[in-house]
Amino acid sequence: xxxxxxxxxxxxxxxxxKIATWVARLRQKHNLDFIIANGENxxxxxxxxxxxxxxxxxxxxxxxTLGDHVxxxxxxxxxxxxxxxxxxxANLPASSPGKDHVILKKGNFRLAVFTVLGRTFVNMKGECxxxxxxxxxxxxxxxxxxxxxxxxxxxxxxxEKIALGxxxxxxxxxxxxxxxxxxxxxxEVRPKGTAFITDVGMTGPYHGVLGxxxxxxxxxxxxxxxxxxxxxxxxxxxxxxLVDYDPESKKATRCELLVVK
Length: 261
Description:
Blueprint: E1 2-7, H1 12-30, E2 34-38, H2 50-58, E3 63-65, H3 76-79, E4 86-87, E5 102-106, E6 109-117, H4 129-140, E7 148-154, H5 158-167, E8 174-178, E9 188-189, E10 195-197, E11 204-205, H6 214-223, E12 236-246, E13 251-260
Parallel strand pairs: 1-2, 2-3, 3-4, 6-7, 7-8, 8-10
Antiparallel strand pairs: 1-12, 5-6, 9-10, 11-12, 12-13
């Protein structure tokens, strides 16, 4: 059995500190083969830097995925190609810097990891995530190398995430949603053997609004004036999805939400 932990969007220093404290413990406690994390909010809540990516990998993250904030930090577009275990969304233009997938190895088992961006209510426009996922599965799994694939759908619309889960049921080991920062209660294994959850939640401060301080966000809703949304600091949790995958049957056998307070 292959056991995977996919950690939701790491938000700022509070999220990074939670990773530093818990990743090694969780690997040992749950006998994890792979730990994957979305790091697109790791730098002050927006984007990632080379030094942060390097630290997260050194702390035990096996692969880092990214989302619509991939290019928010200046200079990251020149650093991303230095990292073999970091991938940007696969449905961005092919000319974009960075890798469109990562392949992780444990013994004789190889796991492809890639992200597709949703297109509904997402400002960064990529190619169709459904067609892009089809292309990526054909590119990475089977005769082309990997034994299975974990697909992250980084999207705003719940319906788009759920639909992709059905589209890939039986073809991906897991389809796991991110981006909205709120963990959902629908973790399951779909009928054909694909682990699914609409959103794995975030790793960051939950006493806030999606990881940001309460007051400026509420005030912005009230008067519409621009404000700086600083990263909050209280009630920091690590949130992710725990997935068991059976390489012999080529099906997931477990998918559950894991939250560490």
